[in-house]
Design goal:
This protein has one domain: Pyruvate-ferredoxin Oxidoreductase, domain 3, CATH 3.40.920.10. It contains 8 helices and 6 strands, in the order βαβββαβααβαααα. Strand 4, helix 2 and strand 5 form a beta-alpha-beta unit. Helix 1 packs parallel to helix 6, helix 5 packs across helix 8 and helix 6 packs across helix 8. A 6-stranded mixed sheet has the order 2-3-1-4-5-6, sandwiched between helices. The longest helix has 14 residues. The chain is α/β, with parallel strands linked by helices. The two termini are 27 Å apart.
Amino acid sequence: MNTNIMIVGVGGQGTLLASRILGNCVLGEGYDVKVSEVHGMSQRGGSVVTYLKYGEKVYSPIIGKGEADVILAFEQLEALRALPYLKKGGKIIVNTQKIDPMPVITGAASYPEGILDTLEENADLTAVDAMDLASRAGNIKAVNVVLIGILAKTSEIPYEKWVETIRSTVPEKFLDVNLKAFDLGYSI
């Protein structure tokens, strides 16, 4: 039985580091892992999606509609966009931050209202102000590791293995902040 996780966000939010931490952690536990990164205009604040599958044997990283066990969303609108990929009864972990996409910035559209209500109606939802927790850890860019901490708490992988993976994946100069961010997320 494979576990299918979608990591969704906006360019610059650290989705790729989050996918590396998650992938390295489950690989270290002996699972077969496949990862596929899909970039929109990621360097210009566009959507970034990473598919990550792990299990005894994984043949493809692609996650189709209705197949994701978990959506790890760095921003509300990205969570809403990914919702069709969530399987019935699946889990969404979402940062409550809102980042206006280009059509909203230019005035061509408005940011949708009631996103968290829609997510809660359709998923097992954990919504958290991860930016606040990252700020408390020492750097707002650690939102990604706060969210990984929340996800880790729901996994079968021991806390120590996650910490070991963060230590081996995150550059030394950012390690303390990221370990604090992980612990703040894990404590949710």
